[in-house]
Specification:
The chain is mainly α. Strands 1-4-5 form a 3-stranded mixed beta sheet. A hairpin with a 7-residue loop joins strand 4 and strand 5. Helix 9 packs parallel to helix 15, helix 17 runs parallel beside helix 19 and helix 18 runs antiparallel to helix 19. It is globular. It is an enzyme of class 1 (oxidoreductase). Its EC number is 1.13.11.52.
Length: about 500
């Protein structure tokens, strides 16, 4: 995979991202479908296709029969562990067809190629992890066993080529495969309301929108649909600072971010109702990666790819979403220099190229313009900044609760789907934002409170003090929980 292009520090957002304010309906299919606009946020600019060109009919046939429970409610290939033989028997090598997917002007059709990538990645994960699914079904307490360690050329070739074109690793990912490019609308006229969302592909029972698998994925889409305001607010902060605009305009940008995060976190909280914790381990089998997983001790050979040397990829993970990394960069949250943070950096490669470029731009600009330093010079901005940090904290805290209740309490498997240590990885980032909140409060607001200066008092104090008390309590509680789980698991 080639590195992202270097973005000139002096360039404006519009120069680097010329489509950021465009009407998504006017964007050509030659653009990466994750091209960011202030209308669609981090969702693709167009709902993903549900079918592929006719040449890919053998792939479509396998995918239609793949789920444990098919769309018509009958058992599919994974229910009887017959997917592997069917792939070897039925699927021709269509690698050369990927480059033939072009628009009317001869440009590569990245919209369709992304759908091809999604579908081959679903097939690849199903093929590699089918033995683990069988082991888990027949003896849930016995672990996952070993997955298949060779991906057939008929799957490996097209998946690898599509990944090359799109500049993403050739393995199932959160945005390009599992979630954000894997939904359609039951009634296009009703738009992006949760009850109108449907999955295109699923492993277990997800073609039924009432299932926990569907609920797990669709909840993420429901959250990301509210990112346009987040993008708009972040751009207002960055662009105003770059142009020497007013503090009040920057503050309004933070208010836009806060309003968007309220909606996003409300959607996130619906996960408990949309996807039962007791169901998660079942479909989770299929979203594990290759890196740091007991199922693939020697990696996986992609037949005909990279000299048949074993490859290692991180699995699908909600940590690959771009919402919180965007705020990490804007707010200049310092992460500890640990192996756990290195995993956080590795996850960046699994985001779509437009997401990576936009996040890198915001990271560079926030550092160049000194967003944090600007914020703490004024009490009102400091409080808005601190409240934004608090959303990062509450988002990560809820993510920790999900990990604890859906996974840690239910399985001894030591790693998350992306290959990170299940007990310690999320607390690494959560602790970092808590530390930053405490530091800003103690260094900036607490002295102003003591001196009775700069407008800190009354309503401001009533807003901040309970928030900081909760942060301190939560920090202590998190440390105790992590210590408890580490001790129980011998970590």
């Amino acid at each position: 995979m080639s590195p992202s292009k270097i973005l000139p520090e002096s360039s404006t957002t519009l120069e680097l991202f010329p489509h950021i304010h465009d009407d998504p309906a006017t964007l050509p299919h030659s653009l990466d479908p994750f091209t960011i606009t202030t209308s669609t946020g981090f969702l693709p600019y167009l709902t993903s296709p549900t079918t592929l060109p006719d040449v890919f009919k053998p792939l479509m046939s396998l995918l239609g029969r793949l789920p444990v429970v098919k769309y018509d409610g009958t058992p599919g290939l994974l229910a009887t562990y017959e997917l592997g033989p069917a792939v070897l028997k039925e699927l021709p090598d269509l690698t050369n067809e990927v480059d033939k997917l072009v628009t009317a002007d001869g440009s590569l059709d990245l919209y369709t190629i992304m759908a091809v990538f999604r579908d081959y990645s679903f097939l690849a994960s199903s093929y590699l992890l089918e033995p683990c699914w069988k082991n888990w079904c027949e003896n849930p307490d016995g672990g996952y066993g070993l997955g298949r360690d060779v991906l057939p050329k008929s799957v490996a070739g097209p998946l690898y080529r599509a990944g090359q074109i799109l500049d993403i690793p050739p393995f199932m990912s959160y945005a390009a495969s599992y979630a954000l490019f894997n939904y359609t609308l039951d009634d296009p006229a009703k738009g992006l309301v949760y009850s109108n969302l449907r999955l295109v592909r699923a492993f277990e029972r997800g073609l039924d929108p009432r299932s926990s698998e569907a609920g797990f994925i669709l909840t993420h889409i429901d959250m990301v649909k509210d990112t346009p305001g987040l993008i708009t607010g972040v751009l207002q902060v960055i662009d105003t600072l770059q142009q020497g605009g007013s503090r009040s305009t920057v503050n309004d940008g933070f208010r836009e971010i806060l309003a968007s995060m309220e909606k996003i976190e409300a959607g996130m909280e619906d996960m408990w109702a949309n996807s039962k914790p007791s169901d998660y381990l079942s479909f989770r089998v299929f979203i594990f990666g290759i890196t740091s997983q007991s199922m693939f001790p020697n990696g996986v050979i992609y037949d005909g790819v990279e000299g048949n040397n074993p490859l290692h990829f991180r699995g699908e993970s909600g940590a690959n979403d771009s919402i919180i990394p965007l705020l990490d960069h804007l707010l200049e949250i310092p992460m500890p220099k640990t192996p756990l943070t290195e995993i956080l950096h590795e996850f960046r490669a699994y985001r779509p190229l437009p997401h990576r470029e936009f996040l890198a731009h915001i990271r560079t600009k926030a550092e160049e313009l000194g967003v944090r330093d600007f914020a703490v010079q004024d009490t009102e901005t400091t409080i808005l900044f601190l409240r934004t940090l608090n959303h990062v904290r509450s988002f990560r805290w809820r993510h920790w609760l999900f990990a604890r209740e859906y996974i840690i309490r239910r399985t001894p498997h030591p790693t998350a789907t992306g290959g990170s240590p299940i007990v310690t990885w999320l607390p690494n980032q959560l602790s970092a934002v808590m530390e930053m909140m405490i530091t800003i409060y103690e260094a900036v607001l607490s002295p102003r409170k003591a001196q009775g200066t700069d407008g800190y008092g009354g309503a401001c104090q009533k807003l901040v003090e309970p928030m900081m008390e909760m942060v301190r309590d939560q920090k202590e509680k998190l440390a105790k929980e992590v210590e408890k789980w580490c001790k129980e698991r011998g970590v």
